[in-house]
Each structure stands twice: as C-alpha cells, then as structure tokens.
Amino acid sequence: MKLPELKIGHLIAPVPIVQGGMAVRISTAPLAAAVANEGGIGLIAGTGMSIEELKAEIRKARDLTRGIIGVNVLFAAREFASLVKAAIEEGIDLIVSGAGFSRDMFAWGKSSGIPIVPIVSSARLAVMAEKMGAAAVIVEGKEAGGHLGTERSIREILPEVKKAVHIPVIAAGGIVDGKDIVEAFRLGADGVQMGTRFAASVESNASDEFKQLYLKSQHEDVILVDSPVGLPGRGLKSTFTQKLAAEGGAPIEKCVNCLKKCSRRFCIMAALTEATRGGDFSKALVFSGEMVEKIKEILPVKEIFRRLLAEVAEIKEEVKT
C-alpha cells in the first residue's frame, strides 16, 4: 500500500516524509535537496547561519532540486526574525519554527503566501498554532533529538493533537524505519518527520566522526542535557556531557550572542559546531534521537527512501494477511 501524499497549504509532497532541520549546519542544501528529489520535504537548518549564508544555501538547494524545500529556525535564536524574513525573500516553500512560535511569523507567512509550520509538544499548543494561522504542525515527542518541549511520548501526544486540530499533523520523535512510520500513521499522523536517520546519511553535512558515533551508540548512550536555551536537549553521552554533569557547566570562550535568552551554562553554538565539523570532541555536543541504535549504516538519501518505502509496503502487506 502506498503512503498518502502530504498536503501543507498549497504544497503537495508525494512522499509524506519531512527531513528534520538539524543545526548547526547538519541540514544544509545537499541533504535537503536529496530528500526533496525523492518526493519528501527537505529542510535547511537556518539556526547558526548568517543571513547571507542561509540565502546561499537556499539558492544552492534550488539548483539541486525542483522539490519542496523549507527552512527550520529555532525560535529562541536572536536572529530568528531576520532569518525567517530572509528565507521568505528567497522564496522558500515553507517555514518550520522550533522551540516556540509567535503571532508575527504567521503574519509574515500570510502576507507572502508561504506556509508556516511550528513544532509543538501538546494539543493545547497545536490548537493555539492553528488559530494563529499554522498550515500544519509537527508534533514532537520525548523520543526526538535536540531541544525538547515535553517528557511525554509521541505515542501519547499524537492522538490528542489529531483530535484537537483540523490541519495536517506530522509526527516526530523516534521515527527511524518503516515500522515506525506505519505506527505513526496508525495513530493518526498525516506525515512524519525524521531527523536522526537523515543526520546519518551520506548527504548530511555532519562530520564523519559524528556519523560514526551514531553507528557505535547504544540505547543507554542517549541522555538528556540541560541546554542554555532553557530546554532539555537529547543527545549522546560523551566526554563533554560528563564534564557538564560533573562541573555544572563549561567556560564560554567567546560569546556570539546567538540566543534571545541564555543561561550561559555552556556555549550551545560552539558545542554543536565542534560536533558538526569533527573538531575537538571533548568540547562537542552531539544531538541524537532516542532510537539511534537502530541505525547501522551511513546510506545515501535515495537508498534510505527506498528501504523505508519497501519496509512500509512489506508491513502493510503483512497486516492485510
């Protein structure tokens, strides 16, 4: 059985898979374009980029695909408004907002005709977003990597959100294989977002060290970190996280003033950048979803899609019999 199309505003994705917008500079043009070329929705992570860098990534993605390309920006980022407006000026297909949202961004979307899709963690937030003008919502459970807004499983939250709103609902958190996709659709999802699986792809801009750490990690290696953003972050145990736990933080060598509000416990931008570029891993924070142990190979996006769709088809055939 073929998965349904995903409709968000005027956009129609032939395959209802959204690639997570992972910062810093993991989700760039090559990854987003590769996903879009397979019929999904590719996201460029704008957080941590300059305005010109984001514009350049959008243009590069446009050269690589005619598919759907969006931008994900962390609402807590100081340059949130400037980055979103820059993406709109470049004619991006949709905007995804992580870790919060504001009424202003829906007005920007309405005036430009670009769908706005916030990430939410409860039915209450989903209803608020719909009233403000969201074209869809991404519902993220505790299983997701990166900054989290809940301690509840996507399996609990998803049915509640689906009953509460009339816009498309995209499930996120712990979705790695075809079985996970089928389960999300059975719970009412109109689409799924996958981050960790695509971070471990050939086209991902993450360093080889980052990707190899994914392959080596077991379930017990996945931990929560108290992020200076003001939210818990799900990542992998490392020398750096052990230092944070033992010392309560890490010195900030140079503040780039990247957040609207920052606890200054450590520099989130520096830690994520070290992980992406494969720099000093004693200073690196590697974000990861809860089910990272399911990932056994670094694959091209095309092969990831082929396997996912084959797994979905096989599971649905088993259900019929």
UniProtKB/TrEMBL annotation:
<protein>
    <recommendedName>
        <fullName>Probable nitronate monooxygenase</fullName>
    </recommendedName>
</protein>
<dbReference type="Pfam" id="PF03060">
    <property type="entry name" value="NMO"/>
</dbReference>
<dbReference type="GO" id="GO:0051213">
    <property type="term" value="F:dioxygenase activity"/>
</dbReference>
<keyword id="KW-0223">Dioxygenase</keyword>
<dbReference type="GO" id="GO:0018580">
    <property type="term" value="F:nitronate monooxygenase activity"/>
</dbReference>
<dbReference type="InterPro" id="IPR013785">
    <property type="entry name" value="Aldolase_TIM"/>
</dbReference>
<comment type="function">
    <text>Nitronate monooxygenase that uses molecular oxygen to catalyze the oxidative denitrification of alkyl nitronates. Acts on propionate 3-nitronate (P3N), the presumed physiological substrate. Probably functions in the detoxification of P3N, a metabolic poison produced by plants and fungi as a defense mechanism.</text>
</comment>
<keyword id="KW-0288">FMN</keyword>
<dbReference type="InterPro" id="IPR004136">
    <property type="entry name" value="NMO"/>
</dbReference>
<keyword id="KW-0285">Flavoprotein</keyword>
<keyword id="KW-0560">Oxidoreductase</keyword>
